[in-house]
Specification:
With 68 residues, this protein is an alpha+beta fold. 26% of the residues lie in helices and 15% in strands.
Length: 68
Amino acid sequence: MKINEYISVQEAASRRDLSVRQVQIICKSGKIPGVVHFGKSYAIPADAVKPTRTGKTKPGPRKAPEEL
């Protein structure tokens, strides 16, 4: 790929309606194939798709222990 076929983290965040930090975390986790990491920056392929959620949910309220 040529350098003009990559986008920055900031551009990816604005295209996909995410924060810059969220895009950095996704890049670090390896969920986007073809991401190049150099120094403190990432180069994201321009044709990369936004990864889907893994189904993890936030923990809800704890259930009270059942009485005997």
